[in-house]
Amino acid sequence: MKTGKKIRYVIISLILLCAGAYLGIAFYYMEGFSFGTWINGVYCTGKNVEEVNAELLSLTAEPGLEVIYPICCGEEKPEGERGSSHFVLDERMAEQDYTKGLRQLLQNQRPLMWVKNLFLQKGGYELEPAVILTEEGKEQFKKEFLADERVRAELDREACIRLLKDGEEGFLLYDGKKRRLDVERALTECLEAVEKGKESIVLSSACYYDEEISPEEKGQEALYRELKDFIDFEIVYDMGAEQVRFDQKALADLLMLEDAGEENAPLIRERDGRESVPVRGEDGSFCWDQEKVEAAIGKLAAAYDTYGRPREFMMTGGGSITLEKGNYGTELDKKAEVKWLSEALAKRCSETHTPAYRREAYARGENDIGDTYIEINMTKQKLWFYQAGEVEIETPIVTGNMMRRRATPEGVYFVYGKQKNRILRGPGYASHVNYWMPVKGGVGIHDALWRDEFGGEIYKKEGSHGCINLPLEAAEKLYGMIEIGVPVVMYYEEEDK
Predict the structure, then answer these.
(1) Residues with Cβ < 8 Å from 38, sequence gap 6 or more?
(2) CA–CA separation, 427 and 445 (whole Å)
(3) DSSP SS3 for 95
(4) Helix boundaries (H) for 261-321
């Protein structure tokens, strides 16, 4: 019986001891945070609100706000392309304080429930400080906001509607009255975001407004629609390897415009800043400027005419050479093309056109030698025939006699005929050839049965009268493959000039 009493006494004593210890710990943490409390990575056990607040503030960076603009220069932007500005609020502009959050956390912990708190924290608490803007800070933020590059761009944007002669579509309607930034509203939203502790804000649609459109600006809009409808077609010049498009931008450049008078409206602002008005015909439709049409054809000819102009040619084996002579090339019939383009513009129909030529090369395009041609290197005494970019014939040759000043002419020429069994005649000679392919006057490519050797330096002393001599087999093969009109490129490398 005595033993049972002793056991009860011990148990009661242990309970009272534990309760006292528990209450003692609870009393100890009455004014501070519970055992094992971590806040923002700071150990806060036993510390009061003021102590923790001071410690957290010492580790907290200055607050900042990223302002995101969903509309830039009047155009709504997709999320990935929105512009933004970042503002830092230093200690003169804003005060930070964790007190409110810390007090709420301390109240929630309840000292008598300190054991329970051990299991609820799960790695600690995260708190954000309250940000309190001073009056001076609000004024400073406003100054920085108004000085921001993106805000300045919005404020400096012309508040008007203008018809511009610009852009890929020929004309552009600049509308500076839509979606203008309401600075006061934007500032209010930014300051509210700062005081709520937000790090970023997307300005709401309420920060943008539309200004009223004047009757003159409505006229600009009407002219824009009329002009866009007038040039809503495309003329494509088929230049062979390339195409030149008279799209809406190019067509806008062909319209007849005149300088705007004081009473003329609506207006078009041109690229150089001048203000013009479109000229209308008797029927009220817009007019094409004949001088501009002629200039457009002249520009086309300047880009694609090759006849009589120097050429850069890439030689087989590497390197390039400039060739200035020759009778090969393209020459546009500018008179015929001015007439055709004028008529096509009057019809305002989309079409593709192959131009008329005074001279037409075998291939058309900026590189009218193309990928099928004969190349003759008179320094190396070699001939290559390229067909569709591949070498079909490569052969040694003998060209004009250098010692007797009968050198084969340099330049870009073309095969202008084909004949079998031809007698070539000249002063003191008459020679039969099986295959004759003339390229410049009496100079041509042919076989030469009287020769046993080709290539090397034979041409320097025992060369031809100017023609290009080939072995019979090579001449026969070339004759069978060549077409009249194929270009022939003939040159000496620098060492022989």
Answers:
(1) 44, 121, 123, 124, 125
(2) 19
(3) strand
(4) 290-304
Specify the higher pLDDT residue, 360 or 58: 360
**Helices 49-58 and 99-109, axial angle in degrees (round to 10):** 130
CB atoms within 10 A of CB 175: 20
Measured CA to CA, the distance from residue 368 to residue 199 in angstroms comes to 63
CA angle 197, 201, 203 (to 5 degrees): 140
Amino acid at residue number 353 = H
Can you list the positions of beta strands (E) in 210-290?
235-238, 243-246, 257-259, 268-269, 275-278
How many Å apart are CA 459 and CA 454, to the nearest integer? 9
Beta-bridge partners for 55 = none
Tens-digit pLDDT profile for residues 81-116:
888 998 887 777 777 788 888 888 877 766 545 455
Alpha-carbon gap, residue 234 to 230, rounded angstroms = 11
CB-based contacts of 103: which residues, under 8 Å, 6+ apart? 49
CA dist 125 and 105 (Å) reads 9
Q: What angle do CA 65, 129, 192 make, to 5 degrees?
A: 45
- 432, 423 Cβ separation under 8 angstroms: yes
Please report, in angstroms and rounded to a whole number, the separation of the first and last CA atoms in the chain.
Answer: 136
How many C-alpha atoms does 3 have within 13 Å on its Cβ side? 0
Q: Tokens at residue 420, please?
A: 């079998």
Dihedral angle sign, alpha carbons of residues 357, 363, 366, 367: negative
- Residue (of 458, 463, 425) closest to 433 by Cα position: 425
Strand partners, 431: 424
Q: 405 CB contacts (<8 Å, ≥6 apart)?
A: none
- Reported as a pLDDT band with limits 50, 70 and 90, residue 497 is very low
- How far is residue 59's CA from residue 368's CA, in Å, rounded to a whole number? 73
Q: Give the CA radius of gyration of the chain.
A: 45
CA geometry: angle at 493 spanning 487 and 497, to 5°?
115
**Residue 125 Rama label (left phi>0; alpha psi -120 to 50; beta):** beta
Neighbours of 467 (CB within 10 A): 27
pTM, 2 dp: 0.71
Give the C-alpha separation, 490 to 328, whole Å.
12
Joined together, the tokens standing for residue 390 give: 């591949």
